[in-house]
Amino acid sequence: MPDTAPETRAARPAIVVLGSAAMDLVLQCDVLPRPGLTVLAPGYQLLPGGKGANQACAAAKVGSGRVEFVGAVGDDAFALALIAALRGADVGVGGVAARTDAPTGCAAVVVDASGENQICVGSGANLSVRASQLMAPRRWGQEASVGSGGTRPGMLTAGDILLQQMEIPHAEVWAAVALARGAGAHSVLNVAPAAPVPDAVLSDLDFLIVNEHEALEVYAGCGLGGTGSSDLVVGALAATIAVAAKHHVAVIVTLGARGAAACLPRRPSGCDVQRTDGGCDVMTVSAAPLTAGEKILDTVGAGDAFVGAFCAALASGSPLHVCMQRASTAGTVACTAVGAQAGVPSQVVLDQRVSDRPPEVDTDWGIGSEPALAHREAPGLAWGREK
């Protein structure tokens, strides 16, 4: 069982999440609405959400390290509920700004009988999130507007992990990546919702995480031409390999029921991958299976659970294949409850699931280029950008 003693927590890199927080209005119905068609739901739920807050809570629930959330909320009841949810997951909220000129973010989430969803986000205070908030002293467990206990100089220090998504102004995301590099921190970007990412930003990342559609959007923004395939999964994987190779960034692509793949252009030794086909090392992990009696209820939190669990495993020093297995399992379990945060498993549950039924891992190292065993068992962070 992982050590959760205070001294162990303090020795691990902190995960600092710069991102969005929103209250989700969740409606479950038989079919999703479409233009001109109104559908009825028997009721609704108000649940904590926002991709940034979701991933922060997931990282804290499945790991034993320190997680901080940096964002913005309004001066309203939704804000109080979101802060309570973050604290309940043992996420620090010292970097959360309280705004009086904008409401807390809110999202309408419609989920059909198969678990598929449609989402529209009212950004609110999330549009006021600034990368400069990372420069403020770290206030453990307190809201910035309330005051502080102990402080640390800046939210990011060398070796920490900065995790971001795309629900705050994109210019602030790019600026935060530069701040992380300057601080000697690792940088992980989940390009959700999908959007092009500047070349300079891609080259400064340690890990880029995308789903199939987001992979194609990033690929198109790089001006790399067509993928040569009409199949979504095949095209997304080709796009991922091309982006990873061009920008020397490790790219993780989630592939739904087909699991996920890590496209790796460099190895822990710091050298670029040398393959006769000119591509990257590709590590694949299967989708974690459901257990008896489980069924898919809501897929809205799967991606955020995957990302949060992946970063928690990175922070723990786990090898990359273990990071992928834990992420895949957390993503599956998250689909068995309604809401973006409710289905994320505890660390104990995740440990047991991965031990009992580990997702299958396979790796294409290329002909004549298989790395040493020490590379494969190296900490996951070693596959990121060379510091």
Give an overview of the whole structure.
The model is unreliable at 1-7 and 140-151 (pLDDT under 50). The protein is built from eleven helices and 16 strands. The protein has 387 residues and is of the alpha/beta class. Helix content is 31%, strand content 21%. It is globular. The strands form three sheets. The protein has a ten-stranded mixed sheet with strand order 5-4-1-10-11-12-13-14-15-16, with helices on both faces. Helix 6 packs across helix 7 (232-247), helix 8 runs antiparallel to helix 9 and helix 9 packs across helix 10 (347-356). The longest helix has 16 residues, at 232-247. The chain has helices spanning 6-11, 51-62, 77-88, 170-183, 199-204, 212-221, 232-247, 302-316, 320-334, 347-356, 373-376; strands at residues 15-18, 22-28, 45-49, 67-73, 92-98, 105-111, 117-122, 138-139, 151-152, 161-164, 186-190, 207-211, 250-254, 260-264, 281-285, 361-364.
Can you give me a brief rundown of this structure?
With 387 residues, the chain is α/β, with parallel strands linked by helices. 31% of the residues lie in helices and 21% in strands. The chain has helices spanning 6-11, 51-62, 77-88, 170-183, 199-204, 212-221, 232-247, 302-316, 320-334, 347-356, 373-376; strands at 15-18, 22-28, 45-49, 67-73, 92-98, 105-111, 117-122, 138-139, 151-152, 161-164, 186-190, 207-211, 250-254, 260-264, 281-285, 361-364.
